[in-house]
Amino acid sequence: MGTDIHLRVEKLVDGEWQYVxxxxxxxxxxxTWDEDWQEDENALEPRARNYNLFAFLAxxxxxxxxxGTYRHEPIEPQFPGRGLPDGVDEEISYEEEDDVPYxxxxxxxxxxxxxxxxxxxxxxxxxAGVVPESVHISLPIGSRPDSWSxxxxxxxxxxxxxxxYDELLRxxxxxxxxxxxxxxxxxxxxxxxxxxxxxxxRDLVPLADGDTDSIRVIIGFDS
Length: 223
Known about the structure:
By secondary structure, the protein is α+β, with helices and mostly antiparallel strands.
């Protein structure tokens, strides 16, 4: 089962927090909310399903995915457990008369734009993933594969650690009838250029008009 993030942007106006609907921003320009968003290959989507981001912001899926699948060493979350700000109702929905976004049903938190911009987006993640034998052979140890999975199952497959694979190879015991998948580990910085981080600069900073404390992002999740 997957987890999704939900975002609500508010601006402090005359002492009151008001919901604002920022324009959607691509990496190369700005579109309105009414234009077709997903067909643009350069589109920026801060609400994408990015579990590294969820762990970083709110301690959601921090290190483990569905059914306890290992993803990375747990990292220090930045804004976990704050709940909803005073005056924000948990029953927020997409109903037109409310005109405010749904916020999910768990792990509510929030942060000012100042806090978000100052967060350590260059944090390193110690990550693990499963790759096919052919990919493992082509990559130096410690390097990040272009793609990987949390686990592989099925007939005639075997998932093993690097040292186990090396031992089988050394002893010429690899079985040609088996599809081998190897657990690789690497360290990287997945959030430095993530869509959410770019969204803060390209979309929310202009809304702040020089006062980043006047913008806050309320965050929730559903599963």
